[in-house]
């Protein structure tokens, strides 16, 4: 997945905002909270960082092309970085980005969820 494809996918998720920060990284937020970061990889080998469930964190930490996210994981947060991208892994990446969006959304207040038009479940 390229950074352009990544940005287009994240833009398609509900109630997202985009900012460039942290060494020119492509940062996507929902309700003001980060759910995905595209950056710190090269244009030819992009890297994507996202929040995961505890189970997916363990699972992905043991798979080639993924690692506990620098900075986040060392602070006990369940964030993974995909640093090897291929057409075969794009579908999985889209799933994990969507899941990260969902997990981060769950941490928002019911009021914020209503403001954003998200279903507070």
Automatic annotation (TrEMBL):
Q: Which domain of life is it from?
A: Bacteria
Q: Which InterPro entries match?
A: YjbR, YjbR-like_sf, YjbR/MT2646/Rv2570-like
Q: Which residues form the signal peptide?
A: none
Pfam families attached to this UniProt entry = YjbR
- Spell out the PANTHER family in the cross-references: CYTOPLASMIC PROTEIN, CYTOPLASMIC PROTEIN-RELATED
Q: What is this protein called?
A: MmcQ/YjbR family DNA-binding protein
Q: Which organism is it from?
A: Photobacterium frigidiphilum
